[in-house]
Design a protein that fits this description.
Shape: elongated
Strand content: 5-15%
Radius of gyration: 20 Å
Structural class: mainly alpha
Distance between the termini: 27 Å
Amino acid sequence: MSAIRLLVLGAVRQHGRAHGYQVRNDLEYWGAHEWSNAKPGSIYHALKQMAKQGLLHAHEIAPSTAGGPPRTEYEVTARGTEEYFRLLREALVARERSVDVLSAAIGFMVDLERAEVLELLRQRLRGLAEWRDAVTEHYVPEDGPGQLGHIGEIMNMWVHVADGEAAWTRGLIERVEGGAYTFAGEGEPFVGVLAEGEENPYATGQRHPEDAY
């Protein structure tokens, strides 16, 4: 799974309707261009592709009175909503997904109910434990990586990654159980998007030919 689909669907969904530059601006505001493949070309390509796939509906907006081409605003369809939640749930559980996919999922986890998020994170913990057990079938951490030559460093890294991710996941579960954050059905959600015309202090400032569309 690529993080870009989840990020773009989530960003459009937060606005209700959004044009491509709004989506790009939001993702730069979140720093997603630093920790994922959410670059301008990828964002605009994802919007067009998901519109073709029926996940987004494209609305053509009339040109401004100042002139220029019409902008396209995108809206998540019923199929797009299903896909968004499928990607979100999968990303919270799957330990083999890359850190950008998990980061995107954490950014949108509050779109789910608290109880479901806790269950998904517990599934993630179980997956991490199973992976660690599989690694340590052939590698004894206490004996050090040298037991398998330099290849043992790979196993050593995997054990440390599993332990680190499990510790982080347990901490997140504890915070969510303790009432942190506002999840679906609990009240007004945290607003993590920029208002129309609001200046983005984290914008890259790099122009792209499709920014006007």
